[in-house]
Amino acid sequence: MLQSTSALLLAASLLAALPVNADGLYTNKSPVLQVDQKGYNKLIANSNYSSIVEFYAPWCGHCQNLKPAYEKAAKNLDGLAKVAAVNCDDEANKPFCGQMGIQGFPTLKIVTPSKKPGKPRVEDYQGPRTAKGIVDAVVDKIPNHVKRATDKNLDEWLAEDEGSPKAILFTEKGTTSALIRSLAIEFLGSIKVAQIRNKETDAVEKFGITDFPSLVLLPGNGQDSIIYHGELKKGPMVEFLSQAASPNPDPAPAPTKAKDKASKPSERPKPSEPIASEETTEESKPSIPIKVPTSAPAIDTLATAEALEAACLAPKSGTCVLAFLPQSDEPDVELTGRAKDALESLAEVAHKHAQRKTKLFPLYSIPADNTASKALRAGLGLSEVAETVEIVALNARRRWWRQYDPSESADYGVVRVEAWIDAIRLGEGSRNKLPEGVIVTKDEPEKRVDHDEL
Fold first, then answer.
1. Per the record, where are the segments of Basic and acidic residues compositional bias (predicted)?
2. What is the structure's pLDDT at 253?
């Protein structure tokens, strides 16, 4: 009995010394694509799609914590972009990880196609280590090969390569969705894709469009156009367009069956097996600095009535977005709930435009103790009692304003807030006329008297 117990203990200790998860963090069933340098060059660097690549070590606690969010992001990005991982603990991958400048784990890099095949743009992802943060960042990098057509230029676009197939999405939105961008990538070089807004009435009438969104296929060679009536999902939409041309051969590789491993090379790149003699534990690994993602800087605050009036309420002031903050019983208490979400979302939107170097109207937070806050709330017909956050956009010069979703179930996440701001940028949606007394004109009477006297 003692001998049997000793044997069991010895077996357990030997098992404990074996490497855990020899294939790395991600299995063949994972939605995350496992690649080495060869797989990266073939499936990532030479792809028409954008990708995000995680460089990790299986023993790294931060990498293990990231795994659920990264796999969720991979599922959400399926068909839109590629989500891959490289096991830098594998001896065969270490030179490649060094070439990519990896100094800490996990390091995430977004890879975007460029005009030079095989020479993509590579940049570090510094956003939140969440599925939503990763998805938002990658979607923002999906290439846009969709033509923005109007009544004025539609005929000219249709005349280009007249015999070739084309597809048109009729939509009420001014932005180009990730789905239609991915369809354009899928058929890049074989089907040209355009997007037309519903306000382009000549084009809408020409193709007999009554519902939005609607996808129309023009097979080419004089054939009649065909309107798609299926689900607005990529799979069936690709199948619909495939009647005119074949999609590009750029699929994710299929998992390899276990029985084929010995006789066939794996179609799905994966890290090599760790060397059995390397009984390395997390404690014996050298300390590697972990990159801390930088958060978006907070938006500016207009703390005084004078600052608010000068920035947004003067007769010639342009568009401003104002976040009226709730009243707090205790000063200097950190905001929570929807108010915190709203400020973080506005900060991310502002930061994104700053990184792109695109012009965006200013975004401000207005504390409840700003003496002009209560009066402006009342002037716009909002509740004078600052119980929750309120976001409004206004333009004093053009005399309009509009409010972000005021319902109790309002979502202040960055996706919804950014869509609202994009609609303002593109002139979409209804606007309210600014009430009298909101715009500060106290200096104008004196100036008029002076001019009259000249």
1. 257-271
2. 43
